[in-house]
Amino acid sequence: MATTRDDWVFSLIEKAVAEGHRCPTNPEIAAFLCTHGHPIASSSIPKIMRHLVRSERVIVHVYPRNWRVVIIRTGPQAGNATMSRPGGGEALMIIDQAERAKHDAKGELREQDLHVIERNKAFR
Q: Do residues 51 and 7 touch, judged by C-beta distance below 8 A?
């Protein structure tokens, strides 16, 4: 049974995978957590996603225009992913355990830094 915020988010992503839906947006995840007794701001969702990556439960592919594809690494949906980005395209960033470890070794990147990195990659 899902009890922590991380577990609730993971279960929501698993459901999206099973139903062939896109990965929920940060506001959708925050609203879901609020309905399950875990009030949280949508700006805090990236931290939960980082926890899921560090614990090797997911890999996250970040695309332009507020789209991410999450690949499940554990459980019955292991190896499956949320819906692909319409029109395809290359991910701006792939966040997996190795990528998180590099950032953790250097010190956590601030959220503003990640937005700048993503914006710069979009203009290459």
A: no
Say yes or no to pLDDT of 50 above 70: yes
**CA dihedral sign of residues 56, 113, 94, 63:** positive
Domain boundaries, the chain: 5-122
Cross-sheet strand order for the sheet of 58-63: 67-72, 58-63, 93-95
- Rounded CA separation 58/36 (Å): 22
Positive or negative, the CA dihedral 80, 84, 89, 95 is: negative
Percent of the chain predicted with pLDDT > 90: 65
Confidence of residue 3 (pLDDT cuts 50, 70, 90): confident
pTM above 0.85, yes or no: no
Strand 58-63 with 67-72, pairing: antiparallel
Q: What is the C-alpha separation between 53 and 48, in angstroms, rounded?
A: 9
